Amino acid sequence: MSNNPPINRNLPKIELNQVKELVKDLYGLDGDYRALNSERDLTWLIGNESGPQGVIKISNSLEPEGVVDLQVKAVEHILEQDPELNVPPVIPTRNGKPYEWITSHFSGARHMIRLISFMDGRTVEDTPEAYCDEYYFNIGTLLGRVDNALQSFFHPYAGSNEHLWDIGRCLQLRAMLPDLPAGELPDLLTGIFDEAEQSTLGRLKKTRCQIVHQDGHDGNVMVRHDDHTRVAALLDFGDMGHNSILAEIVVAAEAYSDDEQDPIRPLINVAQGYDTTNPLTEQEVDLLFDALRLRLAVASTICNYRALHDQEDEVHVADRNYSRMLLKLVDMGRETVTRRLREALRFPVYSPIDTDGPVFADHQDELEQRREKYLGKIWHFYDRPLNITRAQGGWMYTADGTAYLDAYNNVPQMGHSHPHIVKAIARQAKALNTNTRYMCDIVADYAERLTKDLPDHLDTCIFVNSGSEANDLAVQIAQSLSGNRGGLVIENAYHGCTELTTRYSPESWQHLPEAQHPEQIECLIEPDTYNGPYAGDPEAASKYAADADRAIAALAERGHKPASFMVDTAMCAHGLITPPGEYFNLVAEKTRAAGGFVIADEVQPGLGRMGTFWGFMATGMKAENVDFITMGKPVANAHPLGVIILSSKIMKEFLGGTHPLLFSTFGGNTVACAAGMAVLDVIERENLLQKSNEIGDYFRAELRRLADQHPLIGDVRGRGMLVGLEFVTDREARSPAVEETEQVIREMLKRRVMIGKGTPGILKLRPSLAWGKEEVDFFIHALDQSLTAIR
Q: Is 183 left (phi over 0), alpha (psi -120 to 50) or beta?
């Protein structure tokens, strides 16, 4: 073992007098020489009456010329890319060479000699006060810049610089372990190296790998004389090579003061600094615990082995804190470290991206208590709320990594965390996020694109923050221009949570005594063609629409005229019932004849959900019968945005009346508009209108096939990616299966499918447009099992 060159430092054997003669001949320098500590080379600081002149380095005889060339050219490249970085360039010989070959008179071995620029400052290891949060942050910032500069650097010897301290080559250190005294430490080191072989090294290769300095410990970093927190120079590129960028971070983070008790305080600050100049991914952050543990294990092994076996006069690096902090880090554990890192770097709480990832302790009970304490009693979708920590496409994931198929969430219509939309939000937020008082191209561009395929009278946008605000403002405009205060809605409707839209949402108040119903609102009976009073009637459209005459008359008796008829053309709150034929057009015409406006609430049916871009088009509603289109929820794929589309004529009349200064501070901000624009990109690029019809039709066909086996299924209906599933206890009587529906919801949750109910006995299924046939098949299989389970 002791004859293995990587273990023995094998320092060059050369007399100082020869070095002085060589330096004078090659560089014309003379002066005093002070030896510096080095791993494999001989190094001196040369100074004279003019001050420090540079650092002479005699390379190890085993050092390939290409490795030295790598170090020289890397520094040159860094300074080309980022000239303000404090790294020491090589001073060429009198002949203009970056290094020269020499032969030792003492040993006869050949070595390379080079002169490196002097950098002024104090090394961190000689500056006790430097071991502070500010320094760790600043060295992280600098290392991020260095790695940014090195991203574009290539050298054929990048993988040839072999040395013991490289965490990527840690398995060679196993041979040292049997020589260490038996006890807790060798057992721990053995386990860490075993895990490195099985997992850690493979995961490190999946992070960003490039040429890195990977030696920014406290002996290779200098701070300024006047400020111990500011980095004056990054020294010694002798250990650089191709590795994970995490190697850069953990080497800097292992610089502990002797009184440090927190093994990750430096790591957190270094990572925060690095992240400001070279942003980390969450996979990289989640691997930092393992990377630091491995680095400390490498350092502990080398130092403890060399303390026993090093033949040199002086041990190069002592185990000052490596083993002590390794034990503390292991005792702290991956979960605590990862949670603290994620919080410090503003990543969401940890959640494994697959079932192979580590699972942390369940904090469900604590989370529920804190939510109720600070947010009040919140209505959850299930008796036991799910702790969702991430989502992608059509799936949502709980804290333990369990995947749930999302057939309930009606907000991220393009799919959860769609990468194009996420990217558009991030890019715009980086450039500008402000309100619409400023001239910003994205706002006008988005409004133009959103309205380009609509009829001429729907040509103007008003941006707000949500569907509720959009509906609220549409009603205000209708009331202002009509001079009326009455409103028409359909039973069980929901249109928002503002004071005004709550009145237009009988779902919110119809359970109250009639005396508490808003007196200016009148409800129309639901135009249900499956289980309504005119189901199966060929004149159902006109008969249901006739209820609008009754409602208008009822309003008149209370001294009101209708300002508007507001309708969700998908009928989501009504169990996704299918209105007959011309029903919407008939009610719209009656409303307009009475002096009111028609508001098409497209919060849920719009943007392709029903197989057409606008929901009202899917129902056969004529565009000329629509005065306002309102949107929210999915218009920016869950980013806060609400839109009202109306005619420029109506807009001018409104602004010229009682609202000359219509303005929403956050409505239509640049980031929201960028998200909205990206949604339109996705609809076009992924051909989602066609997909909505194809997958939706396949979904309904599979449900109808399932109905042949399960008599509980009474009706399957819907358009595009909206599906209503009505359960009945008797198909002839069509009596709602209320309790059975609740049982199905619970059974489906057991099978990892999230669904929601509409009116009693009805499931409203609103999968995102990201669904494909695989998701449909998963749903059908789970529903088949669930229905079988409750028989």
A: left
